[in-house]
Specification:
The chain is mainly beta. The protein has helices spanning 105-113, 334-343, 349-354, 370-373, 397-401, and strands at 8-12, 17-22, 36-38, 42-46, 57-64, 75-77, 90-97, 119-129, 132-139, 147-151, 157-161, 196-198, 202-206, 216-220, 226-230, 245-246, 270-273, 280-283, 294-296, 302-304, 326-331, 355-364, 375-377, 383-385, 390-393, 417-422. Helix content is 8%, strand content 31%. The radius of gyration is 31 Å and the shape is rod-shaped. Residues 1-212 form the Vacuolar protein sorting-associated protein 13 VPS13 adaptor binding domain.
């Protein structure tokens, strides 16, 4: 007696409509028939359409489109999974990425409510019975994830599976193009690794995009710096160190009420540096402008990023504090005093008597000026150096002349940043009449 049995039998144990295909068979429009469709809780026999291609099985899901109100039978097609080897007993955890969502109000509400996920997770088990390999596909959404990535830092991270390389090496994740939301445009195989973003203080379930490749994950921050981690090795991995730059902003003049400033109508100005004079002024925030970026060193120095030579973070090995570093400093020289009188001619005599006034500026790092170049934020949010100079914003003369028509932070734009050090008999740190 001769018994004929299929070599492969696929069992769809999920509530989703699934499609299966041999990897790379969809590169040509002539092989559309190679896609095999299975309804929920159904079985089908499978064979390889092409013997000249890799015998790897890929799967994708058709999810009911809850945002399409024109057709009840509309589906959203996920991306194809990575290739699986099904000629030996083993199991896989697959992640099916959903295409990019539209910016409609309905989809946004569903995204916020968590009713529509970013990815679907499937569990695939290969079981050999007699001469048949059974490919059993189950829904893994309620099972513990294969991996989970927790971002406990205060910055966003980029992560992607590594193709080649070893743990600890610097890798540059490559972002793969995302297909559109329409399922009819997702017919070709769009597998491969994809760079994803993980926000600060958040976590995400994870499974490798390519299940047959080593579980190596490249994690990086904005700017290109990244490290590779091996999921098969427990314990701490290589440290991911990044240079954290910040904007320095002001909330107004010392004598103003907080009700004068509305974040909805006007953005708080940030500290900027004029190119030639190295004078620190207030300006509107411009994302990516290096002249507005500052770095806080462990020693209390505030370094100006715009005065350093640009270089890739992954290859940066320079020491921040050197003779070539430009740091935040105080200028109390005679030319600075003349500039103060020209800029703010109405400084009252009480302020001049009780405070030493200077201008905030940039200067080369010098250990001799450590007291003037070392800064900290006190409990009230004032920026003070070790020489007791406190940073204060001062309006120009136009504000004093047209105070009735200028009552916002716009009056501070372009103004020099003044510093004031109280005398020994003065109990107040800042001068309320300076502005």
């Amino acid at each position: 007696m001769v018994t004929f049995t299929p070599r492969f039998m696929i069992s769809n144990e999920t509530n989703l409509r699934l499609q299966f295909a041999q990897r790379f068979c969809l590169d040509s429009a002539t092989h559309k028939s190679a896609v095999m469709d299975t309804q929920p809780h159904c079985n089908l026999s499978f064979h390889w359409p092409r013997q000249d291609l890799d015998q790897l099985l890929c799967v994708r899901a058709l999810v009911s489109d809850a945002f399409n109100y024109t057709s009840k039978d509309s589906y959203v097609t996920t991306h194809w999974s990575g290739g699986m080897q099904i000629d030996m007993p083993r199991s896989y955890s697959l992640k099916l990425r959903l295409p990019r969502r539209p910016t409609s109000s309905a989809s946004t509400a569903a995204l916020l409510n968590g009713t529509f996920p970013d990815s679907l997770f499937l569990r695939v088990s290969i079981v050999l019975r007699s001469a048949t390999f059974f490919v059993i596909v189950t829904d893994a959404s309620r099972l513990p994830p294969l991996y989970r990535i927790e971002n406990r830092s205060l910055v966003s991270l980029f992560y992607t599976q590594v193709i080649g390389g070893a743990a600890g090496d610097d890798m540059s994740p490559t972002e793969m193009p995302q297909s559109n939301w329409q399922s009819d445009r997702n017919g070709h195989w769009s597998g491969g690794v994809v760079q994803c973003t993980l926000g600060p203080r958040s976590g995400v379930n994870y499974a490798p995009d390519e299940p047959l490749l080593p579980a190596l994950l490249s994690v990086g921050v904005q700017g290109g710096l990244s490290r590779t981690y091996d999921f098969d090795k427990l314990g701490p991995g290589p440290r991911l160190v990044y240079e954290k730059y910040a904007y320095l902003t002001t909330c107004g003049a010392a004598d103003d009420s907080a009700s004068l400033y509305s974040t909805a109508s006007f953005e708080y100005p940030v500290l900027d540096v004029t190119p030639r004079s190295k004078r620190v002024v207030l300006n509107l925030k411009r994302p990516g402008e290096r002249s507005q970026l500052w770095y806080f060193s462990d020693t209390g120095h505030i370094l100006h990023e715009g005065s350093s030579v640009p270089c890739e973070p992954s290859s940066r090995e320079r020491q921040h504090l050197s003779k070539r570093s430009w740091v935040l400093d105080v200028d109390t020289s005679t030319p600075a005093a003349d500039a103060i009188r020209n800029h703010v001619p109405s400084i009252d005599s009480t302020t001049l008597e009780n405070f030493q006034i200077g201008i905030l500026c940039l200067a080369p790092f010098s250990s001799r000026r450590s007291a003037y170049q070392t800064w900290h934020l006190d409990e009230r949010g004032f920026l003070v150096n070790d020489a007791s100079f406190c940073v204060q914003a001062a309006r120009d003369l136009d504000y004093r002349t047209h105070q009735s028509s200028c009552s916002s932070l716009q009056c501070l734009l372009g103004s020099s940043i003044l510093v004031a050090r109280p005398s020994r008999s003065t109990k107040c740190l800042v001068s309320k009449t300076l502005s």
